[in-house]
Amino acid sequence: MTDPNKIPIPASTTVLVRDGENGLEVLLARRNTKLFFAGGAWVFPGGRIDPEDHPGDVVTDDDDPRMLEAARHASVREAAEETGAVIDIDSLVWLSHWTPPMEAPKRFSTWFFMAPAPEHIGALEADGGEIHELAWMCPGDAMRRRNEGDIELIPPTFITLALLEHFPTAHDALEHYRNFPPEHFVTKFAAVDGSVVAMYEEDAGYNSGDASIPGERHRLWMGDGDWRYERSRWPGRTLNG
């Protein structure tokens, strides 16, 4: 890879969960509309992994265990900087890792962690720089609001919300992912009948890049209308479970 702009930047994000009146809620943060990457979108708090996040020497290999440790430190730091949330690093549950396609204008190699919301939740507030607003949302409501044009989401956020939508409580979600290995999402874009599709491993068309091939599905439909996450095999449960 010779283009430095295409080398993924190590990053980390935190999915804070709590129990609300209508079930599990996640903390979403609206990014400054002037930002180049995901400006105006609602995302989970997070950002780049800085040199000081590394407990020792700075490493660049995603598969190095020390990089995972750096990601955990970055997740705690970014949550504090962007929301004021003080998170116990030992409470972090590694949820997933995301690698965008080469055609993405800016590429981040991102670790997603989940953690219970801190008890003193009332102290949370947006930093006013990169983050302009914070809100607790039920995953299903956030996806519905995106499809109604009320808010903007990016694919990793939408899919993470889809994965969490089926858990009735924060405890259930945390316990589930403590007992299942993190998923690795390496995105491939394709088109079917004019609709953009983001495909992931397990999808029948993933290796060939042909989204029209019949078979198992693991994809996000991203047409002009509703986004829809389609998956034949869900981690730890049946499709209807």
UniProtKB/TrEMBL annotation:
Keyword Phosphoprotein included in the entry's annotation: no
Give this protein's Gene Ontology molecular function annotations: hydrolase activity, acting on acid anhydrides, in phosphorus-containing anhydrides; metal ion binding
Cofactor dependence is on: Mn(2+); Mg(2+)
CDD domains, per the entry: NUDIX_AcylCoAdiphos_Nudt19 (cd18870)
Listed Pfam families: NUDIX
Q: Outline the extent of the Nudix hydrolase domain.
A: 8-159
Instruction: Kindly give the InterPro entries that the UniProt entry links to this protein.
Output: NUDIX_hydrolase-like_dom_sf, NUDIX_hydrolase_dom, NUDT19
> Is the keyword Hydrolase assigned to this protein?
yes
Could you list this entry's UniProt keywords, alphabetically sorted.
Hydrolase, Magnesium, Manganese, Metal-binding
- Matches recorded under PANTHER family: ACYL-COENZYME A DIPHOSPHATASE NUDT19, TESTOSTERONE-REGULATED PROTEIN RP2
Q: What is this protein called?
A: Unannotated protein
